[in-house]
Design goal:
By secondary structure, the chain is an alpha/beta fold. It folds into three domains: about 5-190, Rossmann fold (3-Layer(aba) Sandwich), CATH 3.40.50.880; about 200-385, HUPs (Rossmann fold, 3-Layer(aba) Sandwich), CATH 3.40.50.620; about 400-500, GMP Synthetase, Chain A, domain 3, CATH 3.30.300.10. The protein has 14 helices and 20 strands. The protein has helices at about 15-25, 40-45, 85-90, 180-190, 200-215, 230-240, 260-270, 280-290, 295-315, 330-335, 370-380, 385, 405-425, 480-490; strands spanning about 5-10, 30-35, 50, 80, 95, 105-110, 125-135, 135-140, 145-150, 155-160, 165-170, 220-225, 245-250, 275-280, 320-325, 360, 435-450, 450-465, 475, 495-500. The protein has a nine-stranded mixed beta sheet, sandwiched between helices. Strands 14-13-12-15-16 form a five-stranded parallel beta sheet, with helices on both faces. Strands 17, 18, 19 and 20 form a four-stranded mixed beta sheet that branches. Helix 10 links the parallel strand 15 (about 320-325) and strand 16. Xanthosine-5'-monophosphate binds near residues 345, 348, 393 and 469. Catalyzes the synthesis of GMP from XMP.
Amino acid sequence: MPHSKVVIIDYGSQVTQLIARRVREAGVYSEIHSCVTGATEVAAMKPTAIILSGGPASVGEEAAPVFDPGLLALNVPILGICYGMQLLAQHLGGELVISLTREYGPADMHFKAPCALWDGISVASSTRVWMSHGDKVLVPPPGFVVTGSTSTLEVAAIADENRKIYAVQFHPEVHHSADGDRMLRNFLFRAARLVPDWTMASFVDSVVREMAERVGDRHVICALSGGIDSTVAAVLLNRAIGNRLHCIFVDNGLLRLGEGKEIIAYLCGHFDINLTFVQAQERFLSRLKGVKEPEQKRKIIGRAFIEIFDEEARKLPKADFLAQGTLYPDVIESVSRKGPSAVIKSHHNVGGLPETMKLKLIEPLRELFKDEVRRVAAELGMPDFIVHRHPFPGPGLAIRVLGEVTEERLAVLRRADDIVQQELRDSGWYRKVWQGFAVLLPLRTVGVMGDGRTYEHVVALRVVDSVDAMTADWARLPPELIGRISSRIINEVKGINRVVYDVSPKPPSTIEWE
Ligand code: XMP
């Protein structure tokens, strides 16, 4: 077990996991716990530092998440971020102005007093920070000094160096805060004097140990999708429990051309894994018949998956767990995690689970972002074609055939998408972008082919850059490449006479169209 341990108390911010991620990147072990966790429980975790996250509430609201003042008695360095700052100010005797409206966005913070958090940052000029505040601190608590201000916020950062308690109104964990990463590292290493003794190898060891303990001598079934996440989850479980792991690969008829096959071959060739291949095209496609609404599609697919896993599990007398390669962005966008943050889409592997499911979930990658999973995969010695594989959503092509999903429309999309994959690989762009794929639109447009008029479908090309899928931007592919993909699709795929390139960032759009 690493020596340094940061406990992050989550008050429901969408970016709490980014704090954990930055802490991990700095080489320090961290755990996120819900805001209902009491100080006695936190004390038992033996944290060497505590970070209080932001959150959407106002401390003035009746239902606002509460703070256990016992945390202050633990005598470990504390950093409060945004809502966490309000809580600290409120409980330590500061004065707050309560406001139910919020201000978001960039601001320039001026440094007002020396602070361990500012170490190595040029304090003569201001620094760009990502601000988010409703309530604000008017007068800092006794013992605190104001260490930073913006033009609209006098008390943007405060510190009590003696007690090692720090608070900032902005989000140092997001990329838009220019010196944010430095500030967080300063909190860890200058203020709290932690030791960077956590690595991907130690993550692998601790996850393997935890899973072995949790599963005991029972059996686990693992939903293999053919993507990197479930593959890494399976390999970790294989390490933990050997061949008491039973993998199930479901062909739901919604896969892209060749999806999964290489990975299955790799797993079978390298590990002693029990694998069942289930042909379920008919079950999925018949239930999707006539369904156009995206959330309904996702729920139907999620339910059919779980039904199959339940059926397969019944054939294995002792299987009590279902393992999934769920990642953090799937969790945060699907359910209000451990705090109150808003639902965006119900990703099938989280939000669509029916309440009647008999298996307990096991999700070894639930705290990680995709690039961290890639690092775990590399740590486990997996080959490049797995480590660098683009994400593919659980509901598959069903959410890329907009509108009704039929076999014919899937076949058209599969051919167009295969051209996109080939061209991205051949041009070297596959490794440079986060994800690239084709989407079949439920529209027909007029074209001209030879001497004749055509009235056919449109394919949208979606290629994005991202670091963690929480935000994304359209990839600036060379126009010649876009042109080549477009003419190949129009010439080679019957039924398509137009290709458009999607230039929408996330937010406000999402990566997938449904
Ligand atoms: P969005 O569309 O939410 O996608 O911006 C973010 C990332 O998640 C993938 N995605 C999914 N993955 N089940 C999954 O396993 C799903 O239901 C799902 N929906 C979206 C998407 O491909 C992108 O990488």
